[in-house]
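Side project, low priority. Logging it here so it doesn't get lost.
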Amino acid sequence: MICPKCGFQQEDGIECLRCGIVFARYHSGGEPSLTKPEPISNPAKPAAGLFRRFYRVFRWVCLAGVILMLFLMLHPAAPPPVEASPEAAQSAEQKISEFQSSLRQGTEQRLEMDESELNGWLRNNLALKKPAGSRPAIPQNTGSLLELAKVATGGQPVRNQDLEQEQTTMRDVRIELLEDSLLIYALFDLHGMDLSLELEGQPLVRDGYLRLNPSGGKLGSMPLLAGTLQSAITRIFDSPENKEKFRLPPGIRDIRVEQGRLVVTSQ
């Protein structure tokens, strides 16, 4: 017989002695295809392309997030609607004077001020930056505000030469008294731009130092996360350069907010 594939002539058999094909399979079409198989696609290439597209999208999302954060930080929040009448400021001055006298006499005293009295007293005693064309005000920062708080609770008076050394200019300060906490709103002038800061929490006295148990805060219009807020409060109250500024005058036992009123009690 002659091999149908290679043409080799041989005696009868089941396979070709030269090329090795099986005659039965060759005639029935069972011979494996000699065509070149299609290459198997590499799964790593689509994965790499997907990661590249994800990275491009993620990069633009991050950039948009940073721009949004800067916009919120530089967009001052609206101040809380607090009232401060001249009559309320005079009432606060009288209450503070009586409280200071009780401290000097060593008698127990309770100082209570509502929101209008507290903000009226702040406006009369804080040296805030005036509008354009007005006489420039004495710059103040957190340290000078603490010194002013000591005046109200019987501490040493604020010295003008100390205030003149401060660099940060404050344009507005308001305190909103809530049910059992307070909201401090401060508006700063940062290189000609307005920047607001809000801190909400409960005031308390711990080992003779003023503290704030924070519950929320915003820088501009951007809310501060719990971790960021707690880290900022810890740095403000516990840093070596600031801790002594929060020491209260002797005789102050407690500072808290009760039903929308600021309450200071002496021993």
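Brief comment: Residues 1-32 form one domain.
Revisit when time allows.
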